[in-house]
Predict the structure.
Amino acid sequence: MTVSEIVGHLTKHAVRPSPQRVAVMQYLCEHRTHPTAEMVYSALLPDYPTLSRTTVYQTLDLTCSIGMAQKIVIEEGEMRFDADVSDHGHFKCTNCDEVFDFFYPQATVFPKPAGAFEIKEQHLYYKGLCPTCRQSMKMKKRGHRADG
Ligand SMILES: [Zn+2]
Ligand SMILES: [Zn+2]
């Protein structure tokens, strides 16, 4: 999303596109790392010294409520944000804490509870080891064997 698209979206939802709000949204669009509010805050602080944590938290909350981003909670007490609001799954590496996207066909049918339940949100996530961490662990193991 370009800066003018972000401004357009905010204006359409009656949100004043202040430079700080646009910066938060732009960061989220450009960094598909699923950052936490804290990560966004520390990344923007050097360029926006007057930025407050509250502004970052409120802006992220706001962008989610107007459908420009989604919240992802994989770990208790750790909310991450994603500018990709399409249906997709997430994989969190328990070693390096990175969150990776994975996509499945739109027609994928997931099991649903029987009865008149109305599903409002659907999240698919896995936890495990990413390829990089698996590789480095393998090498560590091999290293130990060579020492012994
Ligand atoms: Zn990893
Ligand atoms: Zn994602």
In short: Strands lie at 70-75, 78-82, 89-93, 99-102, 125-128. DSSP finds five helices and five strands in the chain. The chain has a mean pLDDT of 92.
